[in-house]
Amino acid sequence: MPDLVTDEAEPLGKNAGPNPSRLLSAAVGNCLSSSLLFCLSKARVDVDDLKASVETVMRRNEKGRWRIAGLKVKLHPIIKAEDVSRSKRCLEVYEDFCIVTESVRKGIEVKVDVETG
Predict the structure, then answer these.
(1) What is the mean pLDDT of the chain?
(2) HEC-encoded secondary structure of the chain
């Protein structure tokens, strides 16, 4: 796998790549898309196309620091009208199988250790 360059916007960075907030948003959108596609394939529903968009809602916390306050994900699968009834079960359960989204929703414990040399 090639290196992934991440960066922050100016003045902190040089916009040389996506920032970590965008990567988290992309991870959630991709995971939900993959989970939905997998479920639909198991239900034998052909998906002609799938587009996903994620709006990242940023707010300042009580200390004035920027935080991700929410993610608004829109999935747009293109399926045939006759397959809509077979897709209903997938629409009920697919989110539960998305590792990233459910981990973010429940909160992830983060332990940090800084070792200086």
Answers:
(1) 95
(2) CCCCCCCCCCCCCCCCCCCHHHHHHHHHHHHHHHHHHHHHHHCCCCEEEEEEEEEEEEEECCCCCEEEEEEEEEEEEEECHHHHHHHHHHHHHHHHHCHHHHHHHHCCCCCCCCCCC
List, for residues 64-88, the tens digit of each pLDDT value.
999 999 999 999 999 999 999 999 9
pTM: 0.89
Domain boundaries, the chain: 20-101
- For the domain spanning 20-101, the CATH number is 3.30.300.20
Among residues of the chain, what percentage have pLDDT more than 70?
100
